[in-house]
Write a structure and sequence with these properties.
InterPro entries: ArsR-like_HTH, HTH_MarR-typ, MarR/SlyA-like, WH-like_DNA-bd_sf, WH_DNA-bd_sf
CATH superfamily: Winged helix-like DNA-binding domain superfamily/Winged helix DNA-binding domain
Order of helices and strands: HHEHHEEHHH
CATH architecture: Orthogonal Bundle
CATH topology: Arc Repressor Mutant, subunit A
Pfam families: MarR_2 (PF12802)
Number of domains: 1
Largest sheet: 3 strands, antiparallel
Protein name: HTH-type transcriptional regulator MhqR
Domain HTH marR-type: 8-144
Distance between the termini: 39 Å
Radius of gyration: 19 Å
GO molecular function, one term: DNA-binding transcription factor activity
Number of helices: 7
Structural class: mainly alpha
């Protein structure tokens, strides 16, 4: 019985270490991508947010990132100056300003992700559909845990 508990403890410790290694690798990769694009980390991850979720208002960016409104305003200004985003009036409500990616400008940076995407596809090929379901569940649930922890740190816990 204690050997099962010992094994679980070892696995949990290994998961903790691997999670930290994964987090560090992700941060360093995105820092390198951002540097090649001439962007800071927050700018690069905001572009990623817009890529995943589509056009957003500055207020929606604040809500999703936990950044202060003034910080988001400056962030969007920088991204716009660098040609990565544009502000447009909301068609349904002209008072709302939407921030959207300039797809033509961003497309030129797709090659920066090519080797990483190819490597992930090769990695995924080694798993069964059932294993991929478990991995997907873990990633979604661990992202939710991290988002909740971020919300507590930024005072935006939900």
């Amino acid at each position: 019985m204690s050997s099962d508990a010992d094994r679980r403890g070892e696995l949990l410790a290994a998961l903790h270490r691997a999670g930290r290694e994964h987090s560090n690798a992700a941060v360093m990769f995105h820092a390198a991508v951002g540097a090649r694009m001439g962007l800071g980390m927050t700018e690069e991850k905001t572009l990623d947010l817009l890529e995943r979720e589509g056009p957003l208002t500055s207020g929606e960016i604040v809500a999703r990132t936990g950044l202060a409104p003034a910080s988001v305003s400056g962030l969007v200004d920088r991204l716009e100056r660098k040609g990565f985003v544009r502000r447009t009036r909301d068609q349904a409500d002209g008072r709302r300003v939407i921030v959207e990616i300039d797809r033509d400008h961003v497309a030129s940076f797709g090659a920066l992700f090519a080797d990483f995407v190819t490597g992930l596809e090769a990695l995924y090929a080694g798993y069964t559909e059932e294993q991929l379901d478990v991995i997907l569940d873990f990633l979604r649930r661990s992202a939710a845990v991290q988002q909740q922890a971020t919300g507590k740190l930024t005072g935006q816990a939900g």
